[in-house]
Amino acid sequence: MDLTKEIVLESSRVKLSPMKEEHLDDLLPIALKYPDLLQFSPSPFGTKPALEEYIAVALKERDTGRRYPFVILDKVSGKIAGSSSFGNISLKDKRLDIGWTWLAREVQGTGLNRHCKFLMLSYAFETLEMEKVEFRIDSRNSRSRRAVEKIGGVQEAELRSHTVMTDGYRRNTVIYGILREEWPGIKKNIFHSGNLQ
Description:
GO molecular function, one term: acyltransferase activity, transferring groups other than amino-acyl groups
Order of helices and strands: EEHHEEEHEHEEH
Structural class: alpha+beta
Largest sheet: 8 strands, mixed
Protein name: RimJ/RimL family protein N-acetyltransferase
Organism: Zeaxanthinibacter enoshimensis
Pfam family, one: Acetyltransf_3
Strand content: 25-35%
Number of helices: 5
CATH superfamily: Gcn5-related N-acetyltransferase (GNAT)
InterPro entries: Acyl_CoA_acyltransferase (IPR016181), GNAT_dom (IPR000182)
CATH architecture: 3-Layer(aba) Sandwich
Strand order of the largest sheet: 1-2-3-4-5-6-8-7
């Protein structure tokens, strides 16, 4: 996976483009309006300095080959609606995570995230030829857990006292996975890929 390359993923509904420093102005109104969007994330959020740091960390992790952050354009509204990333990238093991996902409340439940996950899973398995995609979720985040289960993610483990949150709480992290051999069935039966092009 060449992390220096401009990866753009697009469907009729959504466009994922590489995150850049200048996206601060697009993302800041979301962070200020919904400061609790990352309540289950260890990243500070909801202020301009926190978002500046969030973007700086994401771009630094891209430079080190650990993460590839995207901004999400909702083609219905024509506005940037949030962000998602490939992360914990292991080319040797042919494995990566999909996560760091946050969306403005007004687009949640509209199918936008489903389009994003379809594009990211398709790219991971069909272009990058990954063997496994994982999702790491705070055990308390029932909404995200249900969403991953709906797209075929299988719960594999719960890591106790795994990650320190901004308030000092040590969260349990639940790991879900999708295997390469499971993807064709998921694509056909869950995503009905013809409706997502």
